[in-house]
Amino acid sequence: MKRVLIVDDIDENRYLLNSLMKSHDWEVEEASNGSDALEKAKKSPPSLVISDLLMPVMDGYTLLREWKEDEKLQNIPFVVYTATYTEPKDRQLAMELGADDFLIKPMDPKEFMVRVDKIIGRALTKKTKRTKETIEEQKDHFKMYSEVLVQKLEKKINELQEANKNFEEEIEKRKNTEEALRKSMEKLSNMTESAVNALAYASELRDQYTAGHQKNVMKLATAIAKKMKLDEEHISALKLAAIVHDVGKIIVPAEILNKPGQLNTIEISFIRQHPVAGRDIFKQFDIDFPISEIIYQHHERLNGSGYPEGIKGDEIMLEAKILAVSDVVEAMSSHRPYRPAPGIKAALEEIEKNSGTLYDPEVVKICLQLFREEEFSFDE
Ligand SMILES: [Fe+2]
Fold this sequence. Notes:
It contains 15 helices and five strands. It has 380 residues and is an alpha/beta fold. The chain folds into three domains: 3-131, Rossmann fold, CATH 3.40.50.2300; 133-206; 207-372, Hypothetical protein af1432, CATH 1.10.3210.10. The protein has a five-stranded parallel sheet, with helices on both faces. Helix 4 links the parallel strand 4 (78-82) and strand 5. Helix 7 (213-227) crosses helix 13 and helix 13 packs antiparallel against helix 14 (344-353). The longest helix is centred in the middle third of the chain and has 72 residues, at 135-206. It is rod-shaped, with a radius of gyration of 43 Å. It starts with a strand and ends in an 8-residue tail after the last helix. The model has no long low-confidence stretch (mean pLDDT 86). The structure holds fe (ii) ion. The site of fe (ii) ion has 6 residues, from loops. Fe (ii) ion (FE2) binds at residues 245-246, 274, 298-299, 327.
């Protein structure tokens, strides 16, 4: 049976040729480079070799040269089948080195088989023994081989440079897009912060006694959150919620807010609605941070005695627990219309006494550390 050796470094190419040759009753052996092909052919010479040119380890030209110098192999027809070396010079070198045909990929299968049959027919009638190349011939071939190779390398280098340039342009484009995106996110975040600050200012205008209160609460809450190692996103949400946590007081009549002395039941129920109003205002904000929930829960207490829901323990968000402690400490340390300021000492004693019942013990511990060991203080 006729046997063909297919030499190509690309699996798909070998597969295609393999299928074609088998369908024409050829037995097929495969090799992935020149050196592999030589070894296989010397062990068991085929009736025909079809070889690619550009391959690793040993290229097709070198294989062809060694093939035609080997006494056992030189009369076996050698067909070059290439997609890369398509210049007349490439063909000339292959033919001078003794190739029996020079075919360019891809080729119509029918035409390919016609060419193969012709080569086999010719080889049967004409068996010429090729003598070793003279030194001059070797020099010429080596020169041509170098030229052909350099040309191919230059082409490859140009292709690589072009690809590299496109790649760099693509990177630059992406960098610009990322920068624009970052700027617009920053702008959005600044706008959110400005809107929240405007709301905080509006609520403090109505309630002069708590002016500055929200800012101080934000300062303390942020310090506690940082010490508790909350991540950036949670700290940002807590900060925004703190600066505006009493915004819901805009629904409470000014005379109740600024009333000196004790409040009656109706007045107290008004005051207790402010976390609900605060949440409803912030529901309007289309932002990812859960600011409205933190505001809603800032008067809840650990044992369920707070308002508006009376939720307890883990049902309360950590940010709301931090806000609650900060709110109480700041409120007690400053003056109110209905009472003189108990002062910071009394404020700290209050949270210490109620740690674990009204206030989260971890938050209380950190808050006490800040004031007693790290000299934390409010601005005014
Ligand atoms: Fe409040």
